[in-house]
Amino acid sequence: MRATEPLATVKGYLGANIRRGTQLPDEEPLPAITITRQMGSRALSIGKQLHERLQAKCLPAQSNWEIFENDLIGRVLEQSDLPVSLAKYYTERSTTFLDDTIEDIVGLHPTAYTINGKCHQTIVRLCQKGHVIVVGRCGNLLTRNFPNVLHVRLVGSISIRTRHIMKCMQMSLAQATKFVRKEDALRRKYAKENFNRSDVNNPLLYDLVINTDDMPDNAVIDLIEQALAAKTFAAAE
């Protein structure tokens, strides 16, 4: 897949939904999902398969389901007249790390704080429209008061998650263990710096927390789909 394809998907989705205008007061918002995760809990694989299943069940008159992760940053960078190639540096790491990295490499502005803020605004707009799965970037905190959004947290033991990373990224045990612990810590720091929340593992921040250690992807997707149906029904009452 060409690097421009995910960006084109975001642009097309946002454009189609923005052209519909603001939702009418009596219009029920479409359901949406945020997925936050510990490193190595298979969120990308599960998210993609969940998207395929929901889209397959989507009625012809409804808007398509979409899934967004790192491609959101490409959209924000383009709007800021920055090279889309910088997207790899704007990951869920601490803002200080991001600022130092970007400025050391290219000396460009706006800062990571600005880029993160624009990304957060985009997530809010996507979830307001619905039929979207947003992976990462504290989507649950951004949309915590949205009745149409299901908030999912994927977790797992350090040993299982490390083995998954070893397999996927061709790392040694020592390398994978260090990588998983570092990424988990950086995601916690991202939540602290951007939302002043240090309790990302608090189950009360989510509608559904799933331990993926002993559950295949299909079983995890079944649980998410059932929870989405239940929350959608409750929101409509």
Overview of this protein structure:
With 237 residues, this protein is α/β, with parallel strands linked by helices. The protein has a single domain (33-221), classed as 3-Layer(aba) Sandwich (Rossmann fold). The protein is 54% helix and 10% strand. The protein contains 9 helices and 5 strands. It has helices spanning 4-19, 43-56, 71-79, 95-105, 112-129, 139-142, 158-169, 173-195, 217-236; strands spanning 32-37, 66-68, 132-135, 149-155, 208-211. Strands 2-3-1-4-5 form a 5-stranded parallel sheet, sandwiched between helices. The termini are far apart. Mean pLDDT is 81; it is low at 1-11 and 13-26.
Tags for this model:
Rossmann fold; alpha/beta; 5 strands; globular; single chain; five-stranded parallel β-sheet; 54% helix
Topology, pairings included?
Blueprint: H1 4-19, E1 32-37, H2 43-56, E2 66-68, H3 71-79, H4 95-105, H5 112-129, E3 132-135, H6 139-142, E4 149-155, H7 158-169, H8 173-195, E5 208-211, H9 217-236
Parallel strand pairs: 1-3, 1-4, 2-3, 4-5
Helix pairs in contact: 1-3, 2-9, 3-5, 7-8
